Amino acid sequence: MAPESSALNQRSTGTGGRLLGRIYEAIQNRLLVGDYPAGSKLSVEAIRAEFGVSKQPVMEALRLLSADGLVEIFPQIGCVVTEYSLQEVEDFFRMFAGFESVIAAAAAQRRTDEHLDELYLAARRMDRLNNEPDPAVRARQYRIQNRNFHEIIHRMAHSRVMSNMSRRMWDLSDFLINTTGAPQPFGSAIAERNEDHGRIIKALEAGDAATAKAEMERHILSTATIIQQARTSDVS
Q1: Are strands 71-74 and 41-42 parallel, antiparallel or unpaired?
Q2: Which of 22, 87, 146, 149 is least surrounded by Cβ atoms within 10 Å, i.e. has the fewest?
Q3: Per DSSP, what are the bridge partners of residue 73?
Q4: What is the Cβ-side half-sphere exposure of residue 118, based on CA atoms within 13 angstroms?
């Protein structure tokens, strides 16, 4: 489950806040894994009936998801899953790569042996995904474990400012990966992603900030290429 947005955290007090949080997290998770295709319409009535609530908390959850860039709310039309162009996807991952590379550089200078042990353990778990025969299961498990891997690097950096700002970017990254191209495009790219992780770990272990920065930037930038290839393959 993805971390709650800062806007949601401010509202999640009392019974109403917990209800809002439950609806928000459920819809958000479906969006991040690609259960709702880009451009599809979300039925407020169907969501309201599913959770057994009034329209108000559903609309509030959708407004928060709109602020996250995951859905758009149009008068007289309703709520639609945001559809981004490939150019927008490339722009996002250029920005995201720069941000994550700065975190990796800081982590290389501040990492602890305990964090490195965590990172190696996370990498071993991800390596085992190569033996999972179902590509959909493989891709979904990779998304969860990949978030954990990078969150360990965030903790290495010992910077709440960078870590908190990165969370929303990671949500948008997962959303773009699973809604822009073919479904679950990383199902067939896990081996090469894990090789990237291995190079990042080595740079972090060596305390080499420049290499950690470069490897992380290259790793994140390659995501846009995988998405584009998945979309091209899906269309053809």
Answers
A1: unpaired
A2: 87
A3: 79
A4: 16
Give residue for tokens 């979904």.
140
The whole model's pTM is what?
A: 0.85
Which residues share a beta bridge with 72?
Answer: 80
Rounded CA separation 53/58 (Å): 8
Question: pLDDT tens digit string along 94-144?
Answer: 999 999 999 999 999 999 999 999 999 999 999 999 898 888 888 889 889
CA separation for the pair 177, 141 (Å, rounded): 14
Pick from 152, 218, 4: nearest CA to 13: 4
The residues, ordered by sequence, that sit 6+ positions from 207 with a Cβ below 8 Å of its Cβ are 108, 109, 111
Q: Number of C-alpha atoms within 13 angstroms, CB side, residue 143?
A: 27
Cα dihedral: 183, 96, 172, 151 (round 10): 90
